[in-house]
Fold Probable 6-oxopurine nucleoside phosphorylase.
Amino acid sequence: MNDIALAVIGGTGVYRLPGVTWRDSVEADTRYGRPSGPVRIADIDGHAVAFLARHGEGHGVPPHQVNYRANLQALHDLGARRVLAVNTVGGITEAYGPRVMAVPDQLIDYTWGRISTLCEEPGTEVLHVDFGDPYTEDLRQAILSAGAAAGIPLVAGGCYGATQGPRLETKAEIRRLRRDGCNLVGMTGMPEAGLARELGLDYASLCVVANWAAGCDPQDTEITLAEVLANVDSVIGHLMPIIRGVLDA
Ligand code: HPA
């Protein structure tokens, strides 16, 4: 099968595509093991779209234990060549407050101990993929154009800091990320983006800001899962118009 026009990976709070009925469901098994859950497939405006919940549909898989290789390989095996990754994140700098949606253009990887390459399998060729621009520019632009066409405000650009989790960061850690130039912080951006590049997939991230990162909220309130989910929920209606726009591009 080589007919998937777009694959969507859903992050925290995004366990389905709103209003979409699946026509197929694939329990994939890859050379790297099983993905986080079934790959759902739907026809949207005449295009086949695959969807995979990164943490599983019941949110049972923490960020450091996601089988990123299997997730991407499963989508690749189904014929997907473009991946729109939805990442729930914390906002660090002013333009990236709660409920903002952003399309980052850079990232810094602070994760550790995750399998971050496809080159570990015996006999595989060692790759040193170009990763200067970690997201596929054409796909980023397609997302931004889709947002503009649908009247959905999207922040263009920004640097995503990928942290280990699953705990949230200390205020000092976020101060360090800010000094490093990060605008957003999340736990799943890496190794996903790097593996996508190794697999030759077009890959871009649509970040949904769920909360101010530690120490960035002027009110200094505690970050709760309820706040995170409520903020994601309040903007998730924007996802389908963006997907439709990307499909039409
Ligand atoms: N930090 C890291 N990951 C996150 C956050 C955060 O504040 N919010 C949602 N995902």
